[in-house]
Write a structure and sequence with these properties.
With about 100 residues, this protein is an all-alpha fold. The chain has 5 helices and no strands.
Length: about 100
């Protein structure tokens, strides 16, 4: 299995907009808590947990190289967010098992 469309910026939000994001979405330290408590958080959790499963099964190559840097910065951003729910802490830990390039 491999990622086949553009969505990584929604699954792995950071302070930077995605290059192809049609709505220019991003998250800040101030808005991160709102995202974690939003009505979308349960679906977001499922997407991130599915990504964990795919990485465990097939490695980071399920994502195109161009998207792997987004995961690097996702980890960097969310590590700095206080009071994360336990599911996010677990997802970040599972993502960290892999070597993510910064670009």
């Amino acid at each position: 299995r491999r990622k086949t469309s553009c969505w990584i910026w929604w699954a792995c939000p950071t302070e930077l907009e995605g290059d192809c994001d049609p709505i220019g979405s991003y998250v800040t330290k101030e808005t991160a808590g709102l995202l974690l408590k939003s009505e979308a958080s349960e679906d977001w959790r499922k997407v991130l947990e599915k990504m964990c499963e795919l990485f465990d099964e097939s490695g980071v190559s399920v994502l195109p190289r161009v998207d792997q840097g987004r995961v690097f910065y996702f980890l960097e951003f969310w590590d700095g967010v206080p009071q994360k729910p336990s599911w996010m802490v677990e997802v970040l830990g599972r993502f960290r098992k892999f070597d993510w390039p910064s670009r």
